[in-house]
Specification:
819 residues, TIM Barrel, eight-stranded mixed β-sheet, five-stranded mixed β-sheet, 31 helices
Length: 819
């Protein structure tokens, strides 16, 4: 009879000798071999217990996973003590580099964690100072392994961790303390394993194979789903106790298997690996020496270096060899079949989407302290006793920010801005959060919403909360910023991704999260207190990082970079404006970064009340003489709010008409809101349009389903394609800054206009000598962009410059010699 569970680690050839598990066999039964070869492809061992550097191990999760793949295992479970960070590092190594995909990969990565189970734990409130002795509150204390089967299990695991953090069920050894009632309540979607770290082989001596004793296992047998067992040379008591006796070990294993059979619980063999290769054993022992001060006091044992302890990832053959004393059939079953059966119950889980997550703050004492500090800063800004409107505004905003876990993120944002400035990187803030008074008081916003009567929108919405975290950072620093974020533990590669890119708007939106997986699913009954995020708190390491930032942030990385003038000047001269891309005009010039620094107040991350005066000073120092330099000055002056704010300002002041303004995202959203299109859909459509992308057929069908008028639909199509948004923005930028120059420096305005719109190669150097008619010819191009009054002023300016002998020379406008 063919055993369907027999495992063959390598291909089997008919009429050839093969070495298997230390034995030579000869098998000419080709049909049997073909059957067993087919089963070999299905049945693979799964390693269900791996410790990484995020827990007690020393190796990176990525290295552990790759080692398992090389060993031809079906998958691996990352099960660190009280840390789930290792799983996502392993996920990144497997699927983010493009080598594998979820659909194509047959390798299963399993999400897990290890903790300590007890009936009840004392929390700090229950420990009275005058009590010399405390009665035990639990009959047992044991290690367990938790594997996540599906999305329900993941949600329940986060809730379980959340409750442990709320009760402060942690200790300095990073153990996740789980109470029995919580585990029973939230066990749906989870597989609970009795850990091989439970020291049954040393603490309990079973003299006969029929007299197996493990009181703790007996008490929790109805809670667990499976029992782990490790090889003989893995010593769960190492380094405090020596190696076990081989006969005692085998006797206890037999008793354990019989006990599991009677209770219908599968036994699975695990490596309980701390490192990937056998050669790293000494490195791991040395790491224990380093950590001795932290872990050497547990149980009152002295630290010992003697005693066998192998904690590397085992090959399937080696693991089966260890249990051959049970018989080959049983050995293969606990090593291969049982692990495979458990793995079949587990779904593949990818990292969580940030947008569906949030954290709620519970530390009321810290809340009150921060609110007090905010009120103090408000008093410094507004002076004297605060008006009722300010107090009520602060109260409503603060409650909303606390509930949505945004207030501390704003503090982190300010600290991060200071950190970047210290590194020499200029930072400004976006205007999309200018409705928040607290943001302004903290020194992050540059507009006081009370002055403009701007109401505060609740942060409960999906996007409104994110708008508080818009930063503008020169794109040239993008890579450096991401490296620094990684260095300070604020972001990993998997967290940072490009959301959108608009060449015309010169803007990249980056979504950066400090620790994607320390937040929890958004449910009413599930919350995670802030105290675990404190690096100096005993709960600060639960997710494997001590120096994390606490909230996700949008970084708008501007493309308003500075210019390499000599090379770009030649390009502007040679080519017509139609062939010049704004991207071609962008390079780095340290002079203007330093200039920027001079105009940022040290006491404020961003612009202060002297904004307008500094704007003029920048113009006086820079003296831009070409379109490229103009854009550079825009990056220095108008990075707060970008070009949409600048044109809005000109519109308010009556400089330009509404029809001359380029349509922005808010305009599209306003149109769609009239037809009751939901916020999420209207935002998506408007975002695509504002970034110059075509809306999809699906989105057009949605618009039709809401009876959007054909006229408005055509307007939307016109915005996105006639001309493309990029061209519209480029045109608007030229228009706005030509208008700006007209007021501040006519000479600069004249020269920049000519160089931006000329169509002939030699016109730049010969424009003056060609006379007034030639000037008028080219300046009339402005008619398609501005009003008749503007054209008249331009011509007047040109005539005046000609009469005074201004000529173009070496990239600037200067007075001709001898005039």
């Amino acid at each position: 009879m063919v055993r369907t569970w027999r495992y063959y680690p390598r291909k089997v050839c008919v009429l050839k000798y093969r070495r298997m598990y230390g034995r030579w066999r000869r098998n000419t039964r080709s049909l049997v071999l073909m059957d067993e070869m087919r089963m070999a492809e299905v049945m693979k061992r799964y390693e269900l217990n791996i410790n990484t550097c995020f827990g007690q191990g020393i190796s990176k999760p990525s290295k552990m996973v790759k080692c398992c793949r090389k060993a031809d295992l079906g998958g691996a479970a990352i099960t660190d003590f009280a840390s789930i960070d290792g799983y996502f590092d392993a996920y990144e190594a497997m699927f983010m580099d493009g080598e594998y995909s979820h659909e194509e990969s047959s390798y299963k990565l399993i999400f897990g964690v290890r903790g300590v189970l007890a009936e009840k734990f004392l929390n700090e409130a229950e420990v009275l100072e005058y009590e010399e002795e405390i009665e035990p509150v639990s009959r047992y204390l044991t290690d367990i392994t938790i594997l996540v089967k599906n999305e329900t299990g993941r949600s329940n695991l986060y809730k379980l961790i959340s409750r442990c953090a709320e009760k402060k069920n942690m200790d300095y050894g990073k153990y996740l303390k789980i109470e029995e009632k919580d585990l029973i309540e939230l066990r749906e979607g989870l597989l609970i394993g009795y850990s091989c770290n439970n020291n049954i082989f040393n603490e309990i001596e079973n003299e006969t194979e029929t007299c197996f004793k493990d009181p703790i296992l007996d008490m929790i047998i109805d809670i667990i789903d499976y029992i782990e067992i490790a090889p003989y040379d893995y010593n769960p008591a190492f380094p405090w106790m020596g190696k076990p006796d081989i006969e005692s070990y085998q006797r206890n294993v037999r008793g354990l298997i019989e006990f599991a059979r009677k209770n219908d619980k599968p036994i699975v063999a695990v490596s309980s690996a701390m490192y990937e290769k056998k050669e790293k054993k000494e490195a791991w022992i040395r790491s224990l020496d380093i950590r001795k001060t932290r872990i050497g006091t547990l149980g009152g044992y002295s630290f010992k270096r003697d005693g066998i302890h192998e904690a590397h990832i085992r090959r399937t053959e080696d693991l089966i060899d260890n249990f051959l004393f049970l018989g080959r059939d049983i050995a293969e079953k606990i090593v291969i079949n049982n692990t495979s059966l458990l793995a079949d119950q587990i779904d593949f889980l990818s990292p969580i989407n940030l947008d569906d997550l949030f954290i709620v703050h519970l530390d009321k004492k810290r809340d009150r302290k921060l609110l007090k500090n905010i009120k103090k800063r408000a008093t410094d800004i507004y002076g004297g006793k605060l008006d009722d409107i300010i107090l009520s505004r602060l109260k409503s905003e603060y409650e909303d920010l606390i509930f949505t876990r945004k207030i501390y993120a704003l503090n982190q944002l300010k600290k991060f801005g200071k950190f970047l400035r210290k590194e020499g990187i200029p930072v400004t803030v976006g205007n999309s959060g200018n409705n928040c008074l607290i943001r302004y008081i903290l020194g992050i916003g540059w507009i006081d919403p009370l002055d403009y009567n701007i109401r505060f929108d609740s942060c409960e919405g999906r996007w409104s909360g994110n708008s508080l975290f818009d930063l503008h950072i020169p794109e040239i620093y993008k890579d450096d910023i991401e490296k620094m974020l990684k260095k300070i533990g604020a972001v990993k590669t998997i967290d940072s991704r490009l959301l959108s890119f608009s060449k015309g708007a010169h803007c990249c939106d980056y979504k950066v999260n400090s620790n994607t997986w320390c937040v929890i699913p958004k449910t009413d009954e599930c919350f995670l207190p802030i105290m675990y995020l404190k690096a100096d708190d005993e709960t600060g390491c639960i997710f494997g990082r001590e120096d994390i930032m606490t909230e996700f942030v949008f970084f708008n990385v501007e493309f308003s970079k500075n210019m390499n003038f000599p090379a770009l000047l030649e390009k502007v001269r040679r080519e017509s404006n139609d062939n010049i891309r704004i991207d071609d005009l962008i390079s780095y010039d340290k002079k203007f970064i330093l200039l920027y620094q001079e105009f940022v107040d040290d006491g404020n991350l961003f612009y202060n009340s002297e904004y307008k005066e500094k704007e003029r000073n920048i113009w006086q120092i820079c003296k831009p003489t070409c379109f490229a330099e103009l854009i550079k000055c825009e990056g220095l002056i108008m990075s707060v709010g970008g070009w949409e704010d600048s044109q809005r300002e000109y519109f308010v002041n009556g400089v330009i008409d509404y029809n001359d303004m380029i349509t922005c995202r808010e305009d599209v959203e306003d149109v769609l809101s009239r037809y009751d299109v939901d916020k999420s859909t209207s935002w998506d459509i408007a975002e695509r349009i504002s970034n110059g992308k075509l809306i999809t057929d699906k989105e057009i069908n949605i618009l039709n389903s809401h009876d959007v008028a054909d006229l408005h639909l055509e307007v939307i199509r016109h915005i996105q394609s006639l001309p493309l948004k990029e061209a519209c923005i480029e045109k608007a930028r030229i228009d706005l800054w030509l208008i700006f120059w007209k007021h501040y420096d006519p000479a600069v305005f004249y020269d920049a206009f000519i160089r931006a719109y000329t169509k002939e190669n030699d016109i730049l150097t010969d424009i003056i000598s060609d006379g007034e008619e030639c000037i008028e010819k080219y300046l009339l191009f402005v008619q398609q962009y501005g009003s008749s009054e503007m054209v008249e002023n331009v011509l007047k300016c040109a005539r005046e410059m000609y009469r005074n002998g201004f000529i173009y020379r070496e990239g600037s406008v200067c007075r001709a010699e001898g005039v």
